């Protein structure tokens, strides 16, 4: 059977969290990890592979030094993509395993699916199809377990379907390969993702060509080319040219096939590595079919020089088989024999794996048959003992009565458990309400102190000047005016803190930036960073988060004795991450947990928003507060009115 080398599309998944360019603070921190990863990805797109790899390694080392798991997870995912594109499959496998380990440690189910998908691609590239299938099925199980899938969940599922299609095509299961490629295309169309449609079309084209349905393959190949050209995506356009060339060869349109391969060669410098070998081997196959074995042998030799470094094992067997035929035609029988042996060696290893899979299926069927046999024997024994059942009737009645009693007890126990859960939920609601009320009382006390210590003292000073009869003095009038202006400004600040209109009018990001600008003072450098596109928040959530930031920053300004402090807001789809750090004197976290009302308020608010938080601090080592919420949950769960007050 003639085997043709075609290019398919595999999708490798990293952590798709947008981190834009941000200002660098004085000391290395978690933000620098993301900056290094962004720089590495940009250089990767520019083809500066050495510089990109250096930045990736720097990001990984810094994340390890900071014990920053989220940064390590980001690094492992993107570096795995980089290594895969550089055809460094074993190193990429190690990164995928790191990605899986960290995802499990963070209990991040979605990114566990990404890691399993990436592991599957590396195993497939190395010809370990059994391990590839097992890993990919785990990714699909994770995707299928999502109760209410989001757009990202559907996008992930499409990629898993597409990769399963490619794996099945490598195993020559054309029917199922096309079936899963069509499922991937259907999801892409529902998402209206044009680039994803193109990636799914690739495997459809390959499946139709393998099934010798060349008319449909050519039609879909043309659609793929249009998508690549319209989006300016070089890899998609190049893939379309390579597969269309192979289709033209199968149709005996050799001139058109060679012309199309030349168009592909013109794009090779703009595309990632690993494409040239497909073009060279394809041109070799065209000349072989034209019975022009000298140029066929020349292009085969060029392709072979790249193949062992750039081709996966399933593709190597196709190249070796084609090369053996060419060498035989030109009379190089010894080389033909060696290529034939290499082909048989790899093909046998893959075929043995398929036999192993078949054996497993037969074993399952055998166990099922044995189980059915055991059930039949049991039924026979029951039939033989039927006459004895009458003698045991009384015992059966007693057993039924016992079962009824046990059932009643179980129902009663379940009702008690439900009542306990309701009581616990009520107590939790009371605790949340109590925390909110304490927050209001704390805010009122703080406002009273500010009015008494600030505004009242300033107005008292102005009153003294007025009572002293200094109003006729121009200088005194100026001083009295300045005092009154200062009092007005103090009242304005207190008003902003009580009900920040910018949160309700201008939006949460602007309110945080305005607050940081307002409280900034000489001696403490307070910087505010916005990274990525922040998700849309409801007003009550914005106000709660604003109060959290307000209280943390105010505590820093009053007590931390810090010279540098940052407030960082990071958007990732529906997730919002907030980091508040300073280089102040810090505190004993364990001691403060027992007496600190502020920490209790923070915990209450995070429970209210169904979010998570982490506080790191030690005497002399500054303080770091990390908060993360999923706005998809808070939009449904948060029912706090904007008028509520929280300590600031």
TrEMBL record:
The chain crosses the membrane at residues 395-412. It holds the Pfam family HisKA_3. GO terms for cellular component: membrane. Residues 446-633 form the Histidine kinase domain. The keyword Transmembrane applies. Keywords: ATP-binding, Coiled coil, Kinase, Membrane, Nucleotide-binding, Phosphoprotein, Signal, TPR repeat, Transferase, Transmembrane, Transmembrane helix, Two-component regulatory system. Residues 352-386 form a coiled coil. The lineage of its organism: Bacteria, Pseudomonadati, Bacteroidota, Sphingobacteriia, Sphingobacteriales. Its EC number is 2.7.13.3. This is histidine kinase. GO terms for molecular function: ATP binding; phosphorelay sensor kinase activity; protein dimerization activity. It catalyses: ATP + protein L-histidine = ADP + protein N-phospho-L-histidine. TPR repeats lie at residues 238-271. InterPro entries: HATPase_C_sf, HATPase_dom, His_kinase_dom, Sensor_HK_TwoCompSys, Sig_transdc_His_kin_sub3_dim/P, TPR-like_helical_dom_sf, TPR_rpt. Residues 1-23 form the signal peptide. It comes from the Bacteria.
